[in-house]
Amino acid sequence: MGKLLREYQNGDLVDSVCILTGLSVKQTRQQKPFLKLEFGDSSGRVAGVMWEGFDEEVTKIPPGEILRIQGKMEEWEGREQVLVKSISLPPSGSYNPADLLPATGHDVEEMLAELDRIINSIVFPPLRGLLSAMFSDSEFRQSFAKAPAAKRWHQPYLGGLLEHTLTVYAHAVSLASRYPRVELELVKAGALVHDIGKTIEYRWENFFETSTQGRLLGHLVIGVEILDRWIKCQKDFPEELGWHLKHIILSHHGQYEFGCPVLPRTLEALVVHFADDLDAKISGVQRVIDREMQDSGQWTSYVKLMEREFFKGPVPPSSFEEKVSVRESPEKKKPGTKGNPEEQSLFKQ
Fold this sequence. Notes:
Blueprint: E1 13-27, E2 33-41, E3 44-50, H1 56-59, E4 66-76, E5 79-88, H2 108-121, H3 125-136, H4 138-146, H5 160-176, H6 184-193, H7 198-201, E6 202-203, E7 209-210, H8 212-232, H9 239-251, H10 267-292, H11 318-327, H12 341-344
Parallel strand pairs: 3-5
Antiparallel strand pairs: 1-2, 1-4, 2-3, 4-5, 6-7
Helix pairs in contact: 2-3, 5-6, 5-10, 6-9, 6-10, 8-9, 9-10
């Protein structure tokens, strides 16, 4: 034992401690029962199948149970899965439960410090006061720092929500700065609160799953409920400003078919939607490329959510990289451009 699930290659014998994330009993065409499984550890999730060698007790193992699985890694419909031969409880002391959950590669305390700096930079007092109260609350802060951004696609790991939020904030501020009519303060606040409902939508005690409240309401509605509670705790918070913040939360998925009760109807909501969509897609595709970089070929497997394969590289050619590095070296920059957005603007004449 010792390898992570994603470290096994096609044809490798598998002997791993992991978390059961899904189990269902299916039947073959000959009416013979088999198990369709899913396992997870700090490397991610892997499907599994067990054709024989299990009894009724095995079919009753609940998701979240830590197991030792043995079998063989194989490929099925373009994806790796474990052909499971045996399932057992791992020996006592052979694993650390905390090591089984994937986590962000960034320093969480540094990200929280960055979040605090952003909040302190907000000029409009009602917004700064609202965000300061919310993100300094110890219970909410802890949940926000631990929650994943998603269960599978983008940043599906501890600290993923915090990481995603800071990236969305950076994209949103960059976009908003190009358009004078966009209210930057509202965009900043909207980017920070757009996904706060995920602190309740997801649970991460064992692996990442959707809570009952999350299944019934979804994180858009939950986010508005959380925001509304904090607004009511603020003295004389502008009512219309609250509507606009709630609108950003409710509309940030961009389309009805993606769960939005309303479409983005303000410039600020549009900015946050596109910033969120950009990070979700880029982060998701990056994970696929990273996971398959060692596989043969220049293309990833088919990414169902994006309905295409992605080129793995190398992009750009090494000769071009050398030219870029020379062009962007500190010695080549014009004096006075560092830290001066106006002089660095693409639209500066």
